[in-house]
């Protein structure tokens, strides 16, 4: 069974890792042009990378991890669902099988992949670059702390893990408010993932309406 480690937003990725990732996508693109179907895996898995923190553990295959999974359609911002999984050969070999009409081995989960996805992923990575992603992450962290602090000031229990942009708080009692803001709820708790498009102004509107309700 392919072991997948879901690495969330408490990780640090250094320059070398990001540059290697970009190089991988460039290679994927060139392989598509030459009709080589081996490397791409479109998976609904994610790695929310937090850049620029000296305290966070680094992502490296020197550690006993099985794979690193990256969503392209969430924080990266691709217009279609896509993802990349980097894993060890021993796990790829479990999934791989010979495909006669391709004259090669197929290593994808579903036996196919979207040819446009690596192009959009490559474009997004090159357009923003390492510094661009770092600035967006730092903005998300600041706004997440702002949301947590405002919730607590209003007497609403809230929690935010270090190096995370996901704020967990008490589920609002007003179900209309929950539906209007499309809050993700489980039992008596709700959470908000503070993404780059979430501004302080939008958070203020959310908080004011929450307190009023």
Low-confidence stretches: 1-14, 29-52
Mean pLDDT comes to: 75
Strand numbers in spatial order across the main sheet: 5-6-8-7
Estimated share of beta-strand residues: 15-25%
Helical percentage: 25-40%
Outline: elongated
Number of strands: 8
Structural notes for this entry:
This protein has a four-stranded antiparallel beta sheet with strand order 5-6-8-7, with helices on one face. The protein has a two-stranded antiparallel ribbon with strand order 1-2. Strands 3-4 form a two-stranded antiparallel sheet. The protein has 213 residues and is of the alpha+beta class. Helix 1 runs antiparallel to helix 3 (117-153) and helix 3 (117-153) crosses helix 5 (200-212). The longest helix has 37 residues, at 117-153. The termini are far apart. A hairpin with a 4-residue loop joins strand 3 (97-99) and strand 4. The protein is built from five helices and eight strands. The model is unreliable at 1-14 and 29-52 (pLDDT under 50).
Output the keywords.
38% helix; alpha+beta; four-stranded antiparallel β-sheet; 213 residues; disordered N terminus
What's the SSE blueprint?
Layout: H1 15-33, E1 67-71, E2 83-87, H2 89-95, E3 97-99, E4 104-106, H3 117-153, E5 158-160, E6 166-170, H4 175-180, E7 184-186, E8 189-193, H5 200-212
Antiparallel strand pairs: 1-2, 3-4, 5-6, 6-8, 7-8
Helix pairs in contact: 1-3, 3-5
Brief sketch in words of this structure:
The protein has 213 residues and is α+β, with helices and mostly antiparallel strands.
């Amino acid at each position: 069974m392919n072991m997948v480690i879901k690495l969330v937003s408490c990780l640090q990725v250094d320059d070398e890792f990001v540059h290697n990732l970009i190089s991988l996508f460039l290679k994927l693109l060139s392989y598509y042009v030459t009709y080589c179907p081996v490397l791409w895996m479109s998976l609904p898995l994610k790695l929310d990378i937090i850049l620029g923190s000296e305290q966070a553990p680094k992502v490296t295959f020197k550690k006993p991890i099985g794979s690193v999974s990256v969503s392209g359609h969430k924080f990266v911002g691709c217009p279609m669902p896509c993802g990349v999984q980097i894993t060890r050969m021993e796990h790829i070999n479990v999934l791989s099988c010979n495909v006669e009409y391709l004259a090669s081995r197929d290593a994808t989960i579903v036996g196919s992949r979207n040819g446009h996805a690596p192009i959009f992923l490559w474009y997004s990575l090159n357009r923003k670059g390492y510094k661009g992603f770092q600035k967006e992450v730092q903005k998300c962290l600041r706004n997440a702390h702002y949301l947590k602090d405002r919730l607590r000031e209003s007497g609403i229990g809230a929690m935010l893990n270090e190096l995370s942009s996901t704020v967990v708080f008490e589920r609002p009692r007003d179900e209309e408010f929950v539906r209007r803001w499309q809050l993700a709820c489980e039992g008596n708790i709700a959470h908000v993932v503070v993404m780059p498009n979430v501004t302080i102004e939008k958070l203020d509107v959310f908080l004011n309406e929450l307190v009023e309700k």
